[in-house]
Each structure stands twice: as structure tokens, then as C-alpha cells.
Amino acid sequence: MSWFQSAVVYQIYPRSFADSDGDGIGDLGGVIGRLDYLAELGVDVVWLSPFYPSPQDDNGYDISDYQDVDPVFGTLEVFDELLAGLHARGMKLVIDLVVNHTSDEHPWFRDPAKRDWYWWRKTPPNDWRSFFSGPAWELDPESGEYYLHLFSRKQPDLNWENPEVREAIYSMMRWWLDRGVDGFRMDVINLISKDLATGVYFNGPRIHEFLHEMHEAVFEGRSGLLAVGEMPNVSVEEARLYTDPARREVDMVFQFEHVALDQGPDSKWDIRALELPALKRSFGRWQAGLADVGWNSLYWDNHDQPRAVSRFGDDGEHRVAAAKMLATVLHLHRGTPYVYQGEELGMTNAPFNTIEDFRDIESLNHYAEAVEGGASPDDVLLALRKMGRDNARTPMQWTSARHAGFTSGEPWIPVNPNHAAINAEAAVADPDSVFHHYRRLIELRHSLPVIARGDFTMRLPDDERVYAFTRSLDGEELLVLGNFTGDPVVVEIEGWTGAEEALIGSPGLALGPWEGKAFRR
Ligand code: TEU
């Protein structure tokens, strides 16, 4: 057992978490002011999204200096105070490592001696497209050459074939670990090995070599750390290789299979109805695939995904029940659960009326390209409202006061008007709130080994209304149920009556609308 197998991680997107200086943008000082809130929730690790110097083209995932703090977020001294505050409360800090690409304003990009630290070609060698619309090869007027950017034009891809690049990254990582950081969430780390000839950049030919080399150069000889690889397009089979402790690559991966089930095969904006059996097949595949080797991350939400209760549950009449049910189902799986800021409040998608209400480069670029291509602006806006990343980036809702207590200034993105009812102050005061439900689930993970270490068996795989599974360890068993509909359901599970000890919810196998339950025997 590794320490992270009974841990829960809380993701903070600093821009939207808490603003301490009134400029309308969240900052590290704001996080420091909320450490007791995180300690009360009971999380073990904080994953902090980028706070480094950046032009903010992709809200900080375009880094121009890996070893400093952007003034908008604070200073290295404030960072050290935040780190000490987390450690004093028994929490670890994992920071975002964005090394597939830098900002085009990083000194490396304009350094003539570092031309081969990036992918420069006289003409585009392939027709790769950017994740943020348009071609992935950009003409640089100064040199007349093209450079690769799988994300925005201002995020040129680093050339990991160059050992100087790798050594510079490993040196930077060691610098942060020496400062006391407890690990890294590695942004799109399975894109760093690219083969321009074959057109491969997902899980490329040298990816395992690079990750093992990184592990040797950075983590060797240190303990209690966490390496989480964000890996779009990773399969279960590949994840077994990436997370097998004997291979010393990463501890767990963020995979995207379950958050693509309500999207078409070619575009996240091609929105499809989610079918519960498909969701259960996906989770079941990953639970079975990593049961004997490796480890799962468990998430519904992050800064790139719409709000879970709006997407997978009900954000209307049954919002509280649905938010609790989603938490129960996710947190009682085998793996490390991630709580995204506001998920523990049941925060919802926000009302975006016109394209001017959006901030995210991914959404703005898609809108421009789609409308240019003849799509109806209203149709594109419909997709942005449901699937856009800004849904997760509206400010954390602390109180019912102006701007939800997020800032004393003008927020960089409007606060969701429903903060009047959905906010941390009300939730912490209400023992029956989503917040305290998450706190109880986290306590259960800390106290019942069957949750962290037990095996997993999916039940009722084809049922279109109820998510059901069992866990077992050393004779102790759990039954977990989630009603994914707005109608009451009575469940039949062979060998279970509902008279067993109810860990979550009331006795009996009847489930109310969007209700989750858990039993132990
Ligand atoms: O996201 C990588 C990634 O795969 C996303 O492009 C995801 O597929 C998309 O956002 C879903 O809509 C990481 C970061 O989490 C994201 O915030 C960055 O924009 C991106 O990398 C580039 O650094």
C-alpha cells in the first residue's frame, strides 16, 4: 500500500479560488486564507494549478518562467507560506508541471542557441491540428520557419528528443522538490514523445523511456511524493505500464474515457446523451484493468470539465441529492478521488448568455472557427454552455454576499448568480449539506481499509437507472448504489437485503430520486 491509495486530493484553480488583494483574480494569499476550510473537509493533498509567470493566454498553462510566481498570484515567499500552512495542517502540496510546452514568451523560445529546444521546420511536415482549433504549425514571421503548438499559438511544444530540454526540466523539478513540494500533476505528459514521420504524439515511441528517466533523475531517493500523469487518449493497457510501481514511471494517470462518453468521436462539442451502462462499462474496465497492478485516479470534475452535478446529475430540484450520490459512487471506488474546488458544494454550470461571457481560449477559438465555417452561432453557444471549460472556472462561491465573497473587486469572470443559495458558508453550517457528505466520505476512506484496498465488482451492469457495485476485503463487504434518475427505484441485488449496516443513507434497497446509498457487512 502506498500513502496515496487512502488519500483524497483537492484541486485548486488559483485564478478562481479566492482573491486576497482585490484585483478580481484569485491568488495564493487567498488560498492561505482558506486552509482551515480545506482541513475541515479532510483532504490529504492539494493540487495547485499553475501560478507561475505567464501571459495567461491559457490561464497559466503557458509558462514563461518555471521557477517563480506570477505577480498576479503573489511571490515565492507567499508560496512558501502557503506550503508551510498546508504542511502544518498535515496536507501535502502537488503542483502542476506543464512541460509539453512553454509560453512563447519564455526566454528559451527566443534564444537562438535553443532553436532545437522546440519543433521548428521550414514547412509543416504534417497536418496536425491544435486542440484549440486551427493548424498546429505556426509560421514565425521573424525566421520564416514554422513551429509546433498542439495547444495555443502561444504554447510552443518543447522538443523532448533534446537531452538538454529534459535535463533543464528535471533540474527545475528537483528545485521544487528541494523547496518542499510533495509532487507534480504532469500536464498532458503522454504527449512529450512525438514522431513527426508517423504522426504519433499520444503515447509516443519514447514516452516510457522519458518518464522512467524523469523518475530516476527527479524522484529517486525521495519518499512520500506523488506523480500524477494527465494522459489524454491513454488506454487501460498503457496505463498498466505507466502506473506499474516496478516500472518507476508515474503513480497514477488522469484518463479521459468516461468524460468523452457524452461527446462525439471527433469533437467534444458534438454533445451526445450519456447512457449509464456505457459509464459503468468504462469505470468497470478501468477498475478491472488496474486491479492487480497500477492505480486509478477517480474524478468527475476539474478545471477542464463542466460541473459534474450539471453534466452527470441534476442541477435543479434534486441538486443536493445528485451531488451527494455522484460523490458516494465515485469516492467508494478503488483509486484516489479528486475533488475539484466547488464540487464539494454541488456548484453548477453557470449561465453564459453571449460569446462575450466566455473567457477560455479553447471555447473562443472554437466559436470563431465554427461560425466562420458556417455554423449557427446559437448552436455553437449551446455546446459551449454545456461543455465549455469556463463552467468550472467561475469563482468559488464562499458566501451569499457580493461576488460570493471571492473578491472585493470586479471578478475576472462573473460569479454564478446561484451563489446566494450555493456557498461554503451555508454548506459548512448545514450538517446535511453536500460539503459534510464529502467530509464523511473522506473520513470513511481514511477509516475503512476496504475502501482503499478492497477489490471491486460491478453489479447490474446493464441497468440503465442504477449504478451498483460491491467492494470486499478480508471478509468485509460494501454495497454501493446510485440512482441516476429523477424517479424512485427499488433495487434487487443478490445476497443483499438493505438490512445491512447503512454507511450512507437509510436502510432498504429503495432509492429516492438521484439518491446514493452504501451498506457494510
Ligand atoms: O489539458 C489537456 C487536455 O487534454 C485538454 O485539452 C482537454 O482535452 C480539453 O481541455 C477538454 O476540453 C491540459 C490542461 O488541463 C488544460 O487546462 C490546458 O489547456 C492544456 O493541457 C494545455 O496545457
UniProtKB/TrEMBL annotation:
Top-rank lineage group of the source organism: Bacteria
Statement: the UniProt record of this protein carries the keyword Hydrolase: yes
GO biological process, one term: oligosaccharide catabolic process
Keywords: Glycosidase, Hydrolase
Record has Hydrolase as a keyword: yes
UniProt-listed SUPFAM superfamilies: (Trans)glycosidases, Glycosyl hydrolase domain
All copies of domain Glycosyl hydrolase family 13 catalytic, residue ranges: 11-393
Record-linked Pfam families: Alpha-amylase
Molecular function terms, GO-annotated: alpha-amylase activity
NCBIfam families named among the record's database cross-references: PRK10933.1 (NF008183)
PANTHER family reported in the protein's UniProt record: ALPHA-AMYLASE FAMILY MEMBER (PTHR10357), OLIGO-1,6-GLUCOSIDASE 1 (PTHR10357:SF184)
Entry protein name: Oligo-1,6-glucosidase
Organism: Solirubrobacter pauli
